[in-house]
Amino acid sequence: MEKRYFTIGMAGHIDHGKTSLTKALTNVDTDRLKEEKERQISIELGFAPLYEDKELQISVIDVPGHERFIRQMIAGVAGIDLVVLVVAGDEGVMPQTREHLDILGFLGIKNGIIAITKIDRVDEEFTDLVKDDILGELEGTVFEKSPFILVDSISGKGIEDLKHLIITSLKEQATRNSKGAFRLPIDQVFTVKGQGTVVRGTVYEGMVEEGQILKIMPKGTEVRARQIQVHHQSSTKAYAGQRAAINISGVSKEDLERGDVLVSSEHFIVTNMIDVAIQVVEDLDHMVKQRMPIKLHIGTTEVMGRIVFFDRNELKEDNQEILCQLRLEEEIVTKRGDRFIIRRPSPQETIGGGWVIDPSGNKYRYGGKTIEELEKKKVGSPTERITAALYEAKSVSLNELIKRTSLDEETVSENLKQEGFIFYNGKEYTLQLLIDGIEEEMIGRLEIYHDDYPMKQGLNKAELFQVMTNRYPKDLLDFTVEKSIENGKLTRKGQFVSLAEFQPHVSKSWQKRVDNLLVELNKDGLKTQYFIDYIKKAGIPDLLVPDLKRFLEEQEFIVPLDDQYYYHGEVFKKAVDLLRNGTDSEFEVGEAKEILELSRKYMIPFLERLDSKGLTKRMENKRVWT
């Protein structure tokens, strides 16, 4: 069974015991900042490992409860799989309890547990009143049937029961998609001495591996995942649902901020105009007017924009889903289906939330016709549904595609004739944009490999595929390599793949020393010395020797007699010509010794090299030219 990864969140009003409850569950104090200790409130997101076995790994995010830190709260819960809604037993439901409840609902979080804390401070009768109060608030929400649990973080009452409830609830829950393109909305950026820039966040989807080439969006900056940590432990990979810290090269801390997104593909859309479906809170205090300023929270991003309606000019209360558009002041990274929150910047209040229908919105006319078009988009056209299914699965058969899209065979087959859909290996379909993304990743990996190992022919195909096989079927990777060879971007020699324009070479920093080595080797002719002596004399470090030997042999600059003696390539060629011209179709060792004036020490390895190269064939005591 594949291991499953989840992140849960602690939400609720300030001072209702979220941080204490997190510490009681995990033995980790998530208030790290000096200001948090002094003021005894959470300001930034706190993280802790909760549980791990062979099947599950669970992390906790403790989000700030104060209304001033609502952005941090949204950034934290946007990536969670289950919420523990914390309500203090001595206070009951408070304003931030209600707002957090609204936010959780709009973000599509359906799995919840209600934890009534500080129960040692109140009697059973008062606890029942608090429970009734909460039930009233939950009525009509996705959490109305959520289980209740009574806990006290100081005495430890109910803590193990809560932990058990969290684990059993998650065992029944589906995990996030680890097969898709990797995406991590960044919620923290910092530096580690001697390591450089580190970003942290919850992996929304896909997986990442050490050494992988990634991009910081929306800026488009290319970076490399140097190291990965999960719960302060080094890991070669991080999967959807995990909290991860990634040490990246190619960018400084000052160039990054919370809200940037780390992705493995350029095909996530960068946009500042999104078509959306929204719902508003029930107790909206102020009218929402056409084109009024709003603050959008999506993933860990917070950006200003305006709301544009096409069927009204103002909105106060409406229980229905409203189709509209958000026009933003800055670009964001998003895709269809992403959930978000919108808030009024002043006076501050949560207006509502919803999901992205189309991340590539355009300007439309006001009126019913636009609403009709948005309704069609909301359902999704057959092409969009097929594209989404292929993007998630990477490669599927026609029958599987029919199942995944719930479309009939004729509709699917007709849509697959469009540009951008690729039929390959005689049985499966994929997307051109996926092939383009794979090719781009391969080229990026090869560029780095050629820089690191300029003397090698290229990267072994199995190694090239290694960090991609968890994300793409091997058949699709093979197909992409063949297409890239056809279009002149890659080349292959045996099992080695390289960029088409690449030629193995000695780096400039060592070229002069290698030239000196070859000059000395050539000067000694057939009376060559130990090859290691030439290496030392040229001042070439031991670390470089294996790659250098392989390169010089492949390029035929040197020819090995055995593992100690080598001839210069030209010297060997001239010796072969001299021997061939001085003998008949067959010859004996003695004849060869006279012609080349070599002792047995060199003669026997030389003749064996002729045999191994297929220039001669040994027949008893003679050699026959082939």
TrEMBL record:
It comes from the Bacteria. It is found in: Cytoplasm. Keywords: Cytoplasm, Elongation factor, GTP-binding, Nucleotide-binding, Protein biosynthesis. One of its GO terms (molecular function) is GTPase activity. GO terms for biological process: selenocysteine incorporation. CDD domains: SelB, SelB_II, selB_III. GO terms for cellular component: cytoplasm. Pfam families: Beta-barrel_SelB, GTP_EFTU, GTP_EFTU_D2, WHD_2nd_SelB, WHD_3rd_SelB. Residues 3-174 form the Tr-type G domain. NCBIfam families: selB, small_GTP. Translation factor necessary for the incorporation of selenocysteine into proteins. It probably replaces EF-Tu for the insertion of selenocysteine directed by the UGA codon. SelB binds GTP and GDP. This is Selenocysteine-specific elongation factor. It comes from Pseudoneobacillus rhizosphaerae. The gene is selB.
